[in-house]
Amino acid sequence: MKLIDQYLDQIEKEIKNSSLSAKTEEIGFVEELRDGVVMARGLDNVSFGEIVEFQNGVKGYVIDLMEDLVGIIVLGDYLGINSGEQIRALGLTLSIPVSDEILGRVVDPLCQPQDNGKLIHPDKMYPVETIAPTVVYRKSVTVPLQTGIKAIDALIPIGRGQRELIIGDRGTGKTTLALDTIINQKSEKVICIYCGIGQKNSKIALVSDLLQKQGAMSYSVIVNASAADPVSMQYIAPYSACAIAEYFMDKGKDVLIIYDDLSKHAWAYRQISLILRRPAGREAYPGDIFYLHSRLLERACRLADSKGGGSITALPIVETLEGDVSAYIPTNIISITDGQIFLETDLFNAGIRPAINVGLSVSRVGGNAQTKGMKQVAGRLKLDLAQYREMAAFSQFESDLDEETKKLLNRGAKVTQLLKQEKNKPYSLAEQIVVLWLAYKGYLDTLSPEEVTIFEKKILETLKIKGSEIVKTLIKEKMISEDTEKKMVKLISQIAEVKKV
Ligand SMILES: Nc1ncnc2c1ncn2[C@@H]1O[C@H](COP(=O)(O)OP(=O)(O)OP(=O)(O)O)[C@@H](O)[C@H]1O
Ligand SMILES: [Mg+2]
């Protein structure tokens, strides 16, 4: 063999054994910086939702693709980014680390701890934006999600996998309603996620304190993008909270997620859109504002058994101005959700708390999930209340009313009194059934409103001491059988004040 062939052989071998491989990287440049939004040039092959990295290590999220520019929202401090600096596309869609360790924690939308606790070890990476499960992978809503609030469980029942909007003016008890529902999940094995969007950090601290005190933090997660955080964080917060919920749902668990609130989320998106110079539409929101919330709320569902049978129940909160539900964002979200709980300032100020307007509130699918016992006592109640409201308005001008109307007004007033509930005091299903049964059977008709409250308290105390058998059968049978009813009548006869009509 010639010397030259030997050399060639040698070279060939070395090339074969070398580990050199070509790696291409997408590099672009900051063209313009606009208040948390970067316009970049040169990133021709990035896709929507991809993450990029700036020179100082801060990450960005591609949100706008134009002919030669790319709009990126900065996920972090944007003050260290300079015009002309390099941007690297990472070729990944935005994902967050999730694991069981996240329970009991307060995190930001990227799952970084905000509670001075240790870092969360990821079990899996979950994409922040996903496509909602299709109809084939879904099951209808049939299992109730007990809120522990009498008025809701009786009149506007919520099922697991449902989306129910909580809507009302400032300070009408929206957050309290949502938190009470979390507190009531202690015995229900439902994992709860509270997502605060654009709120004061002090309010989030109160939420975390309350859940801690009530022993609810062990099965809850708080995702917080406060008013002080960049709008980019506020924008992705609900999606990333939903990704955490999906992690647990995929494990077959039932999850409750609260978005507090989506009005502020819409504001954050409007701000980003206006900076990106997208055409503004009604109330200066961009044209795709409907899609912003529909793609989020569509991810709430109850999975089919083949997919593990888990569920996500979503309770989005929306703030209205002067009770105006026909504003842009409220109407959009009302049309996306399966019903709404409407809270009113007038009721709140009149001492009717929770300030639920029963007439304007509906639950379109929850009825299928209501337990039989609840249906037995609540069916009449709804009718009574509806007639009462109608009559109450008329009767203000009328002096002599017929007996029938008087009876109706009396019943309505007592039921309204009965549906009042202190905050952070959820009722168990058995307690609710017994208490509502009193109204159904007319035990309250002869009492004054103050007496109704006292009577209710007494009944609950007696139920605790002497009624454990009734509670047990109610929980087991989930309905009032003849036998149980007899026992309930007997129990009530032990309380002195009862004057049955
Ligand atoms: N059922 C209730 N009984 C007594 N007080 C209540 C009840 N519900 C709410 N409150 C009180 O009303 C106030 C407002 O409640 P909350 O913060 O839940 O309202 P919000 O609608 O979430 O307000 P914001 O618009 O500021 O977020 C709080 O001080 C709360 O303690
Ligand atoms: Mg609130």
UniProtKB/TrEMBL annotation:
Keyword Translocase: yes
The reaction(s) this protein catalyses: ATP + H2O + 4 H(+)(in) = ADP + phosphate + 5 H(+)(out)
Glycosyltransferase is among the record's keywords: no
Location of this chain's protein in the cell: Cell membrane; Membrane
SUPFAM superfamilies per the UniProt record, alphabetical: C-terminal domain of alpha and beta subunits of F1 ATP synthase, N-terminal domain of alpha and beta subunits of F1 ATP synthase, P-loop containing nucleoside triphosphate hydrolases
Cellular-component GO terms for this entry: plasma membrane; proton-transporting ATP synthase complex
Family of this protein: Belongs to the ATPase alpha/beta chains family.
Protein name in the entry: ATP synthase subunit alpha
